[in-house]
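ARCHIVE CARD
CATEGORY: sequence design from structure
SOURCE FIELD: tokenized fold
FIELD CONTENT:
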């Protein structure tokens, strides 16, 4: 039998007997630290991703508000002309409006120059452009609008 060691608590401890002390081993501490490090890294990445998505959502919401503003401005005009116009709302957001006449004579007519419809149909496309980080982003919409043909246009 091995030689027992006498401890101060009058208890004999044998060399093969484990010490029942309360605490963590070095391996347990290292594993817990590694798990904590991985978890914190994931949480920080999720937080940063959430901030990026919030910024993108804010930008798209602003862009849609600008689209609606521009469409209301166009709707209040009394006349439309074909072409492209551009401008900017602020240092970040720029707009482009494309207006095209649409041919509304779909009927097969022998002499199409004899048929003059009383209205003109316009296709209006509004695009809002902005730079977000290193990417160019855009939002837009299209609509159609009818306009009465002016008397001087009917005669020509």
């Amino acid at each position: 039998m091995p030689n027992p060691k006498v401890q101060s608590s009058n208890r004999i401890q044998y060399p093969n007997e484990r010490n029942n002390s309360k605490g963590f081993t070095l391996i347990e501490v290292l594993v817990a630290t590694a798990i904590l490090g991985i978890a914190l890294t994931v949480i920080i990445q999720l937080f940063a991703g959430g901030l990026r998505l919030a910024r993108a959502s804010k930008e798209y919401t602003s862009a849609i508000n600008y689209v609606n503003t521009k469409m209301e401005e166009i709707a209040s005009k009394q006349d439309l002309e074909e072409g492209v116009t551009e401008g900017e709302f602020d240092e970040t957001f720029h707009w482009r409006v494309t207006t095209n006449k649409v041919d509304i004579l779909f009927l097969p007519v022998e002499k199409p120059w004899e048929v003059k419809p009383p209205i003109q149909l316009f296709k209006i496309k509004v695009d809002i452009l902005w730079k977000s980080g290193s990417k160019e982003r855009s939002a837009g919409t299209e609509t159609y609008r009818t306009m009465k043909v002016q008397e001087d246009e009917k005669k020509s």
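CARD ANNOTATION: Strands lie at 5-6, 12-13, 83-88, 94-102, 119-132, 135-148. Residues 27 and 146 are 77 Å apart (CA to CA).
SHELF: design records, drawer C
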